[in-house]
Specification:
alpha+beta, globular, 3-stranded antiparallel beta sheet, 2 helices
């Protein structure tokens, strides 16, 4: 990672900090998720997710449900339409 990339990443982290899971709302906001395992937390996952009204997280591309529990989330500042959310959940069901 170059110095410029590191500075850009730090600036992005300051503007858009990680938030606790209890603050997530099922309003169709596209989010980044932070997962943790026994070694540590990893935020290198480039995928995007959204929270369903049922409390389940869904991956957008490729569509699918999330089985492991995330530890934190942060918004990507864009919302999915209800129609798009329904389509993603339907596609996730058949995979």
């Amino acid at each position: 990672m170059t110095i410029a990339e590191r500075k850009a990443r730090e600036a992005y982290d300051r503007v858009n900090p990680w938030r606790p899971m209890k603050d997530a709302k099922a309003d169709g906001t596209i989010c980044e998720l932070l997962f943790s395992d026994m070694v540590g937390s990893f935020d290198t996952d480039p995928r995007r997710y959204f929270l369903d009204a049922s409390g389940k997280w869904f991956r957008i591309d490729p569509p699918g449900p999330i089985y492991k529990a995330p530890t934190s989330w942060r918004a990507a500042w864009v919302k999915l339409t209800p129609e798009r959310r329904t389509l993603i959940k339907r596609e996730a069901r058949y995979k």
